[in-house]
Amino acid sequence: MDNDITPTGIEVSNSEQILEIDWSDGHHSEYSLFGLRKNCPCVMCRGGHGNMNTFDMELFFVEPTQHFEIENIEQIGNHAIKIFWNDGHNNGMYQWDTLRDMCPCQECYPEQE
């Protein structure tokens, strides 16, 4: 991702189970909360440092087995957000480039069915 591409807007809908991001290059991303939570980038959720930056994109397309809600989002510098989940977890720092790489839209992830 181009380092100059940053979010211009972030919206959360806990009722629709979606986090939406509009990007400075005009792209629009919609993430299921289940997929985001299950792909938390923290070392504990990733299962160790060797698995950092590996994500399961299929989790954005499956029927959720748990209901997650975002209680708060905090910006970390100019490069990331920290999501406070309703299950008490808040260790993951979702960097802009990580979020853009995880975009599950047809254009970014054509492998989806």
UniProtKB/TrEMBL annotation:
Pfam families per record: GBBH-like_N
Gamma-butyrobetaine hydroxylase-like N-terminal domain span: 10-100
Gene Ontology molecular function: any one: metal ion binding
Keywords associated with the record: Iron, Metal-binding
InterPro entries: GBBH-like_N (IPR010376), GBBH-like_N_sf (IPR038492)
Lineage: superkingdom: Bacteria
The name this protein goes by in its record: DUF971 domain-containing protein
Lineage: Bacteria, Pseudomonadati, Balneolota, Balneolia, Balneolales
